[in-house]
Amino acid sequence: MCVAVRGGKRIIPLIFASMAIALVGFLLYSYLIRLLAPEENGVTCSVDEDCVASECCHPSECVHVSQQPDCKTVFCSMDCQEGTMDCGQGKCGCVNGKCEVIRA
Known about the structure:
Layout: E1 4-6, E2 9-11, H1 14-36, E3 51-53, E4 62-64, E5 90-95, E6 98-103
Antiparallel strand pairs: 1-2, 3-4, 5-6
């Protein structure tokens, strides 16, 4: 590490101190953004009924009911696909204000 010597004492150059302060500020900012930001789509839930499947066929994710897809004209195959909520493998629920898949 480069150091400057002034008056017989070692002093860390200002550039390193500035970089350290900037890094701490960036990390704190990033943490606060994730902590305080609402759900990605801007809609949160409060009860399980607020959450529905994100896709008409073989859904693997959940969204708020306000973003429910229109499945009136969609026909799905009746097979049970792994990794989805097909055939009781999971259901939508509200977990800490976010719509999540609750695996069976």
